[in-house]
Design a protein that fits this description.
139 residues; 10 strands; 6% helix
C-alpha cells in the first residue's frame, strides 16, 4: 500500500507560489448525477453529468507584497489558474500528479482569528470548468 506524508503539497494561485503559507489543501472533485430512470426500471439509474468541483485551502496570512493577502485581494472576484502538486520536491509523474484548475476567487477572509491566534485565511473556491490531472508537466 502506497501512503504519503501530506506536508509538501505545492500550491500556486495566479502563478504565485504560496506553498510555504499553506497548512491544508483539499481538492473536491465532484460530478453532477443525472437521473435516467425510465418506465419499467426496477431501480434508479444515474449517469455522470457536468463536473462541479471546488478547492479548499487554509493559508497562513502574510501581508507582504506578492504574498498571500496581496495575491488573493488582487484576484478577488476573478477566475485565476490554480496549480497543485502532491509532492513539490519531486517531478510530476504517474505517482505525483499535477492538478490544474481555473478557480473563481469568490471568497477570502482578510481578517480571521482570535487573540494570540495565527492570522489565517480559509477559503473554498468553485472550479470554473474541470480539474485537469496530468502526469507530465512542470509545477
Amino acid at each position: 500500500m502506497a501512503v504519503f506524508l501530506n506536508n509538501k503539497v505545492g500550491v500556486k494561485v495566479n502563478s504565485v507560489d504560496l506553498s510555504d503559507h499553506v497548512s491544508a489543501v483539499t481538492i473536491n472533485r465532484n460530478l453532477a448525477e443525472l437521473d435516467v430512470t425510465a418506465m419499467g426500471d426496477l431501480g434508479v439509474k444515474r449517469i455522470a453529468g457536468l463536473e462541479d468541483s471546488s478547492i479548499t485551502i487554509s493559508f497562513f496570512n502574510d501581508t507582504a507584497t506578492s504574498n498571500v493577502l496581496a495575491t488573493l485581494q488582487a484576484a478577488y472576484g476573478t477566475n485565476v489558474t490554480c496549480v497543485f502538486l502532491q509532492d513539490k520536491g519531486t517531478a510530476v509523474s504517474a505517482t505525483n500528479k499535477l492538478y490544474t484548475a481555473t478557480c473563481l476567487i469568490n471568497g477570502i477572509t482578510d481578517i480571521n482569528g482570535s487573540v494570540a491566534d495565527l492570522g489565517t485565511i480559509d477559503v473554498t473556491w468553485s472550479v470554473s470548468g474541470t480539474v485537469a490531472v496530468a502526469t507530465t508537466g512542470t509545477f
